[in-house]
Amino acid sequence: MEIIELAEQGLVANLVVKDHSRLGRNRLIVGQLMEEDFVRLDVRYIAIMDNIDTAKGISDIVPMQDLFNEWHAKNTSDKVRRVMQSKGMSGKHLTTNPPFGYMKSPEDKEQWIVDEPATKVVRRIFDICISGLGPTQIAKELKAEKVMTPTEYWNSIDRKCSKSPAVPFGWVADTVSNILDKQEYCGDTVNFRTTSKSFKLKKRLERPKEEWQVFENTHLLS
């Protein structure tokens, strides 16, 4: 955790949060922070709304609060998972943002429509691939032609995404391969590509293809 790294450097003497749940909803990690790390690093922790101040000692009720905070997080995660499961099984897109070459319809946010400037690049990638070139060669060609990468293009139209790289037109083989591998460019919706082991873990894991849910011809081909 960043706060612990700063504390290790002697840069944190007091940590103040409005609500104790802001420290975390994993009771094991929160317990270690309060009972071991903060003590070891001489960090005073204060949770204003919960009347917690480690300078005055830790109440026996705090571990119970941590448990309830974790239960709340798990319950919320389970509800979201059920909603997403229902939505995904109905054939609606689960991805927050459409892939490069598509955009959300202004009339219906659930529907993807062709984003023509980006689609021209996608079509070019497939055309070059059909001509016999691989991802690395395609990336070199796009870079030489000074074609904007997906991130650069999205930034140019003010779509929320990661910051554009310092070096422009930085096409790489992985980006090209990702585009060539996407079944969505055939006009299909593909849901449940990934999953997570626990609500405590942010890392997404790839599902086997047989577990994907594919709905054909849900949008125009790119």
Task: Describe the 3D structure.
This protein is of the alpha+beta class. The chain contains seven helices and nine strands. The chain has helices spanning 2-8, 27-40, 62-89, 116-130, 135-144, 150-156, 173-181, and strands at 14-17, 44-47, 52-53, 102-104, 112-114, 189-191, 194-195, 205-206, 213-215. A three-stranded mixed β-sheet has the order 1-2-3, with helices on one face. Helix 5 packs across helix 7. The longest helix has 28 residues, at 62-89. The radius of gyration is 24 Å and the shape is elongated.
What are the defining features of this structure?
222 residues; alpha+beta; 2 domains; 3-stranded mixed β-sheet; two-stranded antiparallel sheet; 41% helix
Whole-number average pLDDT?
93
Helix content estimate? 40-55%
Shape: elongated
Calculate the terminal CA-CA distance, rounded to whole Å. 42 Å
Structural domain tally: 2
Strand order of the largest sheet: 1-2-3
Poorly predicted spans:
none
Q: Could you say which structural class the secondary elements and strand pairing correspond to?
A: alpha+beta
Give the helices and strands, then pairings.
Layout: H1 2-8, E1 14-17, H2 27-40, E2 44-47, E3 52-53, H3 62-89, E4 102-104, E5 112-114, H4 116-130, H5 135-144, H6 150-156, H7 173-181, E6 189-191, E7 194-195, E8 205-206, E9 213-215
